Amino acid sequence: MSPVQEIQTGIEGFRLWPGALSVRAQAALLAQVLSAEAEAPFYRPVTPGGRPFSVRMTNFGALGWVSDREGYRYQATHPVTGKAWPPIPQTLLDLWSHLTGWPEPPQACLVNLYRDEARMGLHQDKDEADLTAPVLSVSLGDTAVFRIGEAEGGPTRSIRLASGDVCALTGPARLARHAIDRLIAGSSTLVPGGGRINLTLRRAR
Ligand code: SIN
Ligand code: FE2
């Protein structure tokens, strides 16, 4: 993997490593993701209020993040197939320990597939038991317009996440509000059929 450059964005604890994954590493990771996805297909969850997400999701790891009419939670099985989630690819486990230095491995890897108009509204990641453990996020495919603001409120700022970029919510930014406003369609040819795949690694319990 190519060396990473860390950029401070003004939000303390938010870290961004542009181009952390080389083009070759992105293609290798995508192949692993798509082969695991064959076992645990993308599906479209609904919010607790019953609205379908525009993003399709699956998970890797002992636990996966799910949403349905009963709420948000982590569970060990795919809600459609009923099977255990596939393991987290080793490349991602290595990236987690290399970039976060967290002593324990991630338990969950949420895989988000954005196509066309898919987006994700402003939210905080707070379904995890230990909110001191970092969240590490890997972008593949089309560039996304990512919005981030401090946990307590106040202004948000917009940055672009391109294919191969990795970012982390750590320390004071662990509960930062964040969103994906939109994709820049056609900015990458990596994902077959177009769009963007985001991989989010977390400690869940
Ligand atoms: C998320 O907040 O779960 C996804 C963020 C992203 O797609 O970059
Ligand atoms: Fe999130």
Structure overview:
The structure is a single chain. With 205 residues, this protein is α+β, with helices and mostly antiparallel strands. The protein has a single domain, classed as Alpha-ketoglutarate-dependent dioxygenase AlkB-like (Jelly Rolls, Sandwich). Helices cover 14% and strands 34% of the residues. The chain is built from 2 helices and 13 strands, in the order ββαβββαββββββββ. The chain has helices at 23-39, 90-100; strands at residues 7-8, 14-17, 56-61, 64-68, 71-75, 108-114, 120-123, 135-141, 144-149, 156-161, 166-169, 177-183, 196-202. The strands form 3 sheets. Strands 1-2-11-8-13-6-3 form a 7-stranded antiparallel beta sheet, with helices on one face. The protein has a 4-stranded antiparallel beta sheet with strand order 7-12-9-10, with no helix packed on it. β9 and β10 form a beta hairpin. The radius of gyration is 16 Å and the shape is globular. It starts with 6 loop residues before the first strand and ends with a strand. Fe (ii) ion (FE2) is lined by residues 123, 125, 178.
Could you give a short description of this structure?
The protein is of the alpha+beta class. The chain has helices spanning 23-39, 90-100; strands at 7-8, 14-17, 56-61, 64-68, 71-75, 108-114, 120-123, 135-141, 144-149, 156-161, 166-169, 177-183, 196-202.
The biggest sheet amounts to: 7 strands, antiparallel
Helix content: 10-25%
Radius of gyration (Å): 16 Å
Low-confidence stretches: none
User: Mind telling me the CATH superfamily name?
Assistant: Alpha-ketoglutarate-dependent dioxygenase AlkB-like
- What is the top-level CATH class? Mainly Beta
Bound ligands, each once: succinic acid, fe (ii) ion
> How many structural domains in the coordinates?
1
Q: Count the helices. How many?
A: 2
Strand content: 25-35%
- Element pattern in H and E: EEHEEEHEEEEEEEE
Mean pLDDT: 95
Shape: globular
How many angstroms does the end-to-end distance come to?
A: 29 Å
Going by CATH, the architecture would be Sandwich
Number of strands: 13
> Which structural class do you get from the secondary structure elements?
alpha+beta
Q: What's the CATH topology name?
A: Jelly Rolls
- What order do the strands of the largest sheet run in, or round the barrel if closed? 1-2-11-8-13-6-3
